[in-house]
Amino acid sequence: MASLRNNLGVLNKILRVDNITVQERISLLSLKVGLVGDREKMEIHVELSQLYSSLNQLELAYVELDQAGVAVQNDKAKVIQILGMKVDIEHRRQRLNRAQQLLNQIEKLEKLEKLE
Fold first, then answer.
1. What is the residue extent of each domain of the chain?
2. Per its UniProt entry, which superkingdom is the organism in (predicted)?
């Protein structure tokens, strides 16, 4: 998950052009289309397509990150449940040991009573 988060950070940096977000860049390019010739329009459309593609990849990466976060939360809940069971088992083991010690003491006392 850390590598995914790092990749998202790198992708975000790549998608920022002169500190302008992808959405801002798309808006600026869309406005430029009416002011330039056919060749420039084609270049702008190509860049817009690339930006939209990059934006879609980023959105998919964020969805993947959210899904990974949910999986981590589910795993965390399972770990907490298992730890709770482990604590419960340990308490039961301690009570069983204490009961066994008491039973041993009772048996010793009964043997002593029979000897008297």
1. 2-115
2. Eukaryota
